[in-house]
Amino acid sequence: MEAEGQRKKEAIPLLTPYRMGKFHLSHRMVLAPMSRLRSYNFTAQPHAVLYYSQRTTRGGFLIGEASGISDTAQGYPNTPGIWRKEHVEAWKPVVDAVHEKGGIFFCQLWHAGRASKYEYQPNGHPPISCTDKPITSEAQIDGTTAADYSPPRRLSVQEIFQVVDDFRVAARNAREAGFDGVEIHAANGYLVDQFLKDGVNDRRDEYGGSLENRCRFPLQVVEAIADEIGADRVGVRLSPFADYNDCGDSNPPALGIYMAQELSKRGILYCHMIEPRMITQFERVETKSSHGPMREAFKGTFIAAGGYNREDGNEAIANGNADLIAFGRLFLANPDLPKRFELDIPLNRYDRSTFYTSDPIVGYTGYPFLDQTP
Ligand SMILES: Cc1cc2nc3c(=O)[nH]c(=O)nc-3n(C[C@H](O)[C@H](O)[C@H](O)COP(=O)(O)O)c2cc1C
């Protein structure tokens, strides 16, 4: 007993409890949202039940993969949707499995915007965006090239209202599916980020130009969703420093701080920030930039993501640089990541070649737990 008490006292910072609004988390290691491209026909599949439940701990917080909010939202094959009744029904057993193991589960709401192509759009139409400028830079989020994307069509103001409403309905659907809340995907060069960044947003109306105007659509989405399901169930993911999908900004700190302040005013549950060091989605670089001022500006829970391991995750929590740390690739390859961090033992290596393949087991539910490791 004594030894156990001793161990508990010495819990590493990542494994200490944290209260996120109404949610009592038993530790601070979050499953980062990760598209796995195994949701055939844009619908969550039974194998997702096992995948998410494998990564659930009692009191752990999980963010589901990007889920399309409407029939124009998709940009890749086999990503799940949350806009139709059948999508909601398909998510239910997945959410139930996470809840049965005591996890807290949010749905990431996503619209790809111009990071899409004709084949994923209704009737083969152009993808939609704030702009009609196509993606031109060569290296993209998953190694595809600019040539893979179709030129987008610029949304009218009336249509922007419709997209805001699509987000609202998707949030309601997520709650109906049983999710505890939603995360708005406003990062990584997808639709919401396209509005935010001056490298893409070239509008001359009230949705473009000044920082305030560029943040108008994202904040309208936040407000519509908060009205629908409550601000205490809404998080927002941002990547002001990144330029994935050819989506960069000339002044990332100003953008990040402004958004953090505006989100704070609206009382949303958490702000989830991708580290400035993640200059590309998977490459960590040295940088003097920091999300510190954004952490300062946001009064709710602050989640940091991007390139974290056991050591710097613990440091970030201990220094107060973040309340929670989201782990992507390490959690993908280690379903029992919190346990492995607790015991400080070696991790399974992730296999990048199977991140986005469609097999329901290989590279997905097939990564071994500790007690299955030979
Ligand atoms: C296979 C894969 C899929 C991803 N899909 C998403 C996604 O759907 N939504 C999102 O916001 N980020 C997505 N990301 C980014 C991760 O959430 C995370 O920010 C990134 O992997 C960096 O964190 P890490 O170093 O802990 O892996 C994805 C990453 C990977 C590896």
Automatic annotation (TrEMBL):
Taxonomy, superkingdom: Eukaryota
Q: Is this entry keyworded Iron-sulfur?
A: no
One Pfam family recorded for the sequence = Oxidored_FMN
- Keyword terms, alphabetized: Flavoprotein, FMN, NADP, Oxidoreductase
CDD domains this protein is in? OYE_like_FMN
Residue ranges of domain NADH:flavin oxidoreductase/NADH oxidase N-terminal in the record: 14-348
What cofactor(s) does the depicted protein rely on?
FMN
Coiled-coil residue spans: none
Name the Gene Ontology molecular function terms of this record.
12-oxophytodienoate reductase activity; FMN binding; oxidoreductase activity
Task: List the InterPro entries hit by this protein, alphabetically.
Answer: Aldolase_TIM, OxRdtase_FMN_N, Oye-like
* Family (UniProt): Belongs to the NADH:flavin oxidoreductase/NADH oxidase family.
**Official protein name in the record:** NADH:flavin oxidoreductase/NADH oxidase N-terminal domain-containing protein
Query: What organism does the record attribute this protein to?
Result: Vitis vinifera (Grape)
